[in-house]
Amino acid sequence: MPLRTIAPVTTLALLFFGVWLWFDGHRPAAAASGLLSALALLASIWIHQRKPRLEIGGVLLCLATVGGSLLSAWQLGSDALPWTYLTLMSNFFIVRNQIATPLNLMLVAGLLLIPDVLLGQPARLQALTVIVLVFGFGYHFSRRLQGDRIRLEMLVSLDALTGVPNRRALERSLQAHINGVRNERFRQGLVVIDIDNFKEVNDHYGHGAGDTALSDLAAILRFELRENDQVFRFGGEEFVVLADTGSREALARFTERLRKAVHESLRGPGGRITISVGAAMYAGEQRWQDWFARADAALYEAKGKGRNSVVVAE
After folding, report:
1. 242 class by beta-carbon count within 10 Å (0-12 exposed, 13-18 middle, 19+ buried)
2. Which residues contact 36 (CB under 8 A, 6 or more apart)?
3. pLDDT of residue 1
4. Ramachandran angles phi, psi of 206, nearest 5°
5. What distance in Å separates the CA atoms of residue 15 and residue 38, rounded to the nearest whole number?
6. What is the mean pLDDT of the chain?
7. How far is CA 110 from CA 118, 286, 293, in A?
8. How much is the pLDDT for 4?
9. Residues recognised as catalytic
């Protein structure tokens, strides 16, 4: 069940529990349930607004569910344990294992401290056994799912033909750069690369030759990049490099080195294959699209100069 559903349901459950406690005469407990309901509501608002750090909303929600489980156990005793099982399991799917595990351990420790909930009778020991099993199963199953999710995210972020990150990964990286440390932003250069006369390669020698040229170009770029540089396939015959160059002059030297490396190494059935390169240093743009547009305009200028050339935006 997605967070956007769990959060409001938890808010309502804690609110109704607080109302019941209030009319049953447990005013302090009702106030505590109201505070937990407000915490769950805050988590719900955070999640629905898709804040940059969505996991904070998940942590707030888990704190609300743990607090609600302890409060219900304090008021209802062992009758509240089914809610505890649900909380232990759901927390592993709301947040990462590294966060859910200490929160769930805190919940179990709190239950052990509440008299006659988990300790003291054989039936209570059975409940403790169930909690251990639910905890272990939830931890193991969520780890498997987390690993599968990471692998799937990697697959959808890679270009199947060349093996380099794709446009989706590029957009995420550029947005992260825009949101990053100010001093580091101005060290970065954005390089847009386009294969010259690529359509002729496909038309004369077939798409297989074109695919080979794309794969070979990606391999050359990966070989030429430094540790902190990144290469992406933007689409078609275009590649993008995010390079830590520090200055416009260094960016010009870097892009010229890439052009020469491709000029010397990239071959197709019809002979040498060249590239045109446009580049731009980060200049304080608020949107990565504006930064990309400057580099893309430089690329078109390079193509207008006769191809196999480099232009770095002012």
Report:
1. buried
2. 14, 18, 64, 67, 68, 71
3. 47
4. 95, 165
5. 8
6. 87
7. 10, 48, 56
8. 77
9. 237
Q: Are 95 and 62 in contact (CB under 8 A)?
A: yes
Please name which of 21, 27, 66, 75 lies closest in space to residue 43, comparing C-alpha atoms: 66
Q: Quote the longest CA-to-CA distance of the chain.
A: 88
240, 191 in Cβ contact below 8 A? yes
Pairing of strands 310-312, 275-281: parallel
- Round to whole Å and give the CA distance between 228 and 206: 35
Spatial CB neighbours of 288, under 8 Å, sequence gap ≥ 6: 171, 174, 175, 177, 178
**Whole-number Å distance between alpha carbons of 282 and 312:** 12
Helical packing angle, 3-23 and 27-48, nearest 10°:
160
Q: What is the pLDDT of residues 120-133, one digit of tens each?
A: 666 577 777 888 88
At 54 the pLDDT is 66
pTM of this structure:
0.59
- 198-202's contacts with Cβ under 8 Å and 24+ in sequence apart are 198/236, 198/237, 200/270, 201/268, 201/269, 201/270, 201/273
Residues of the chain with pLDDT under 50: 1
